[in-house]
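Help!! Second protein's tokens look totally different from the first
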Amino acid sequence: MEIGIDSFAAANVKGTTNNSDALVQLLDRMEHADTVGLDVFGIGEHHRKEFLDSAPTMILAAAAARTKRIILTSAVTVLSAADPVRVFQNFATLDLISQGRAEMVVGRGSFTEAFPLFGLNLHHYDELFSEKLDLLLNIQNNEYVTWSGKFRPALNNQPIYPRPLQNPLPVWLGVGGTPASFVRAGTLGMPLMVAVIGGETHRFRPLVDLYREAGRKAGHSPEKLKVGLHSLGYVAETTEQAVIDFYPGYAEIFTRIGRERGWPPVTRPHFDAQNGKTGAYLVGGPEEIAEKILHHSEALGGISRITFQMDNAGLSHAQLLRAIELLGTKVAPLVNK
């Protein structure tokens, strides 16, 4: 199983005084993840003050120059608000710089700031994504592209360069809880990254089964239908210490975001429930987290990748470095044993 980190390039890392320091420290953590043997590092895409990931391929390219083996991916690319040609060119260039270590996870995103920022109508949320995914996959598989749609000028036998080192460049579909999204990924034969940021992970099993059944009906081999899991998580020496470190910043940030979305304030009992044996959160000591990863994998019928989002809880750079080290040297060996 591939184990890695997803980051939204948080600006509120404890101890940083400016955004430049925060990004320099993020690159240090990406290099450290490579050194301790983690498999993948993803950078999200947001257009908000508290996150510094509005240009994720810039961060990934900087990391490519400082790493040797780790996969560099998005988490996720907000394809609805982007030009698929430029998205492909950016990640193809990243693939060349990293010598074949680039991937992308595309989705619609859980925030909506990109739509007004780029002059798009939120009412076209589904149409935009469907059309742009169709174009992106066309470019993924063809050097010369003929294509037409509603939201972008047509392409007539147009070559798209550069081509990536990998052929094809891996593209995952990032999904939340919409059944149609799982079916679409299966029908297209795309690997699936499931964002479970609350609730109980096993409740997603019917949706994952939908994905696999749609893929089978479309003629795709089981090996092609990979499932990944993205969850909030953090690892410390003990479970008690992990919760002490993680909870205060988590509660502050998610209560603030919750006010925007009409969620109730975060409470400790609510957090403890989410962090229980069947809950989505992965906050604990190495042994407990390894056991929980295996439990989640079994509950979903087998997963091939799991990524931890841990830098959105006001933790310090030193705490995050140690958590990455524990993931690579303690958790991953236990899981893969």
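Here's the second one for comparison:
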Amino acid sequence: MEALNLPRPAWMTEEHVMLEEQARRFIADEFTPHLDAWHEKGMYPREVWTKAGEAGLLGASLPEEYGGAGGTFAHEAVIYREYSLGGFDTFGAPLHSGIVAPYILHYGTEEQKKRWLPKLASGEMVGAIAMTEPGTGSDLQGVRTKAEKSGNGYILNGAKTFITNGQHANLIVVVAKTDPKQGSKGVSLLVVETDDAPGFRRGRKLKKLGMDSADTSELFFDDVKLPAESLLGTEEGQGFYQLMKELPQERLIVAIHAVAMMERALALTVDYVKQRKAFGKAIIEFQNTQFELAACKTDATIAKVFLDHCIGLHVEGKLDTVTASMAKYRLTDTLGTILDRCLQLFGGYGFMDEYPISRLYRDARVLRIYAGTNEIMKLLIARSL
């Protein structure tokens, strides 16, 4: 699936190459053969999580003392790319390992880290983050979910939607207002263990345009009683700050998937046009095909080089919000353009669900929406001018 043949980026060491090979083999053996069945079923089984945990593909950047592999974001980036190259775009592990776990690692108390991180790294717990509400979308300051003080703890009430891992998750970081009068300063993050939470219920697994086997869901919290230690960290009102601090990594993760999906689309298309014949010759022999794929390969190469630059910055702790926003916006937009061109070269077969390019085309569309819409990305970039 090496469609671009670029030299190894500076952030990748021999250790990362070995991880890449290990992850690629594992995904090809354990997951890829079942993708069609999971796609038809609209869900993958729960044991996928424990298998990924056993293989070291969850929590790779968590310290060893908390059950992780003691790596960096570079290790995570290698794994996320392999998920997408293997066709496993709908698996919520990048959110689990790269978004949920870091909230606990960076802002949790020592007790919270010891309690939750080893279970996330093993796959015993599946993580989700509940930000979006039916009426809020990208406007996190507008959340209406409330966590009101009750004795020592809290009573949580609210509804969330579009939640990745919603059907499987048993540890959910919930964005809620602990002081509605304070605006963004009244937002806190609360961690809900759902296995032991009366009043918590899962709504529908949402029917979507793409990402069919992803368990994107509605979640409801009706008078859910939480202990004081459910508050992430030690202080109320830190939620908005915590969210803003972690969003660049979330956006970089989306960019990693975008580029891996480009690579896969290009490889699938090149393979197809070499085999498919029209008017007595292979489609690759037509100049139009060559020009279209030349443009796709060029765009994908530029995207990969910029992505590697951003990953390198992030590993050094230097990736800022503006650059992360550029990566998320530009690379997901480029993905849409490349997929449109590639699907066209498949002709009518590109429209058939059994062809991976068809699923890629549908699954890719949401990348321009989640983790903050591309319009929000442009707004953040514009503020730096």
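Reply: Different proteins will give different token patterns, so don't panic. The chain is about 45% helix and 15% strand.
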